[in-house]
Amino acid sequence: MRYKITFSYDGSGFHGFQKQNGKRTVQEEIEKVLSSVNDAPVKIIGAGRTDSGVSATFQVAHFDFDKDITLYKLKSALNSYLPNDIYIKKVEEVSNDFHARYMVKLKTYEYKINTLEYNPIHRNQEFQYCKTLNVDKMKEAVKYFVGVHDFTSFASAQDKREDKVREIVSAKVLFKDGIITIVFKGKGFIKYQVRNMVGMLIKIGEGKYEPTCIKTILDEKDRTKASINAPAEGLTLVKIEY
């Protein structure tokens, strides 16, 4: 029987979502509990990978499970034995052809920047930049990311895949009470893409580049032309649509 889980996690204590030898990951923690409940190994397939330090308020995965158990009991068992930086929000039974990764239509990420005094309470959910940025210029610049582009200039330098064309269906910069929230929505993103785009927007907000530079950098398809990536703690996966 196949199940779909919707869950959240504080990424600050994990080396990303995907299982890695010798490192604490979200996938490993959930699989350990599921395997214990099932009395047999269980592997989960996530809707996507988040990097080390990146959080999620809405992540999705599917898995196949042998044991006969109600949805309520399965959710309760998971939340009873999982560490307190992961929470299962919903457990659903789905058809055997459901795939958490391949059937995704859109993902939404948010990046938060604190421009006020350092806030230790939110240090794992916001980049504590603690300086003023030109939000109007950032709002102008973010529009250049919308559409279908080759994002080579904003991909990880270690990403050797040739196809770096992705579509961003919407992008916006919001500002309220000293917090800048940058929102990107698209079907899929390359490793470090969002953090690299945010890093460039910060440089524009600092006045070091003009908003139109985004178009030029995209066209050049050269990772060395864009800024360094923004810290992981400001980034959160907030929505997945099927």
User: Could you tell me the number of beta strands?
Assistant: 10
Mean pLDDT: 96
For the biggest sheet, the summary is:
10 strands, mixed
Q: What would you call the structural class?
A: alpha+beta
- Straight-line N-to-C gap: 20 Å
Write the layout of secondary structure elements.
Blueprint: E1 2-9, H1 26-38, E2 45-46, E3 55-64, H2 71-81, E4 86-94, E5 106-114, E6 127-128, H3 135-142, E7 147-150, E8 165-176, E9 179-186, H4 193-205, H5 213-220, E10 235-241
Helix pairs in contact: 1-2, 3-4
Give structural notes.
The protein is α+β, with helices and mostly antiparallel strands and 242 residues long. The protein has 2 domains: 2-94, Pseudouridine synthase I, catalytic domain, N-terminal subdomain (Alpha-Beta Plaits); 106-241, Alpha-Beta Plaits. 22% of the residues lie in helices and 29% in strands. It is built from 5 helices and 10 strands, in the order βαββαβββαβββααβ. Strands 1, 2, 3, 4, 5, 6, 7, 8, 9 and 10 form a 10-stranded mixed sheet that branches. Helix 1 (26-38) crosses helix 2 and helix 3 packs across helix 4 (193-205).
How is this structure best summarized?
The chain is α+β, with helices and mostly antiparallel strands and 242 residues long.
List the keywords.
2 domains, alpha+beta, Alpha-Beta Plaits, globular, 10 strands, 5 helices
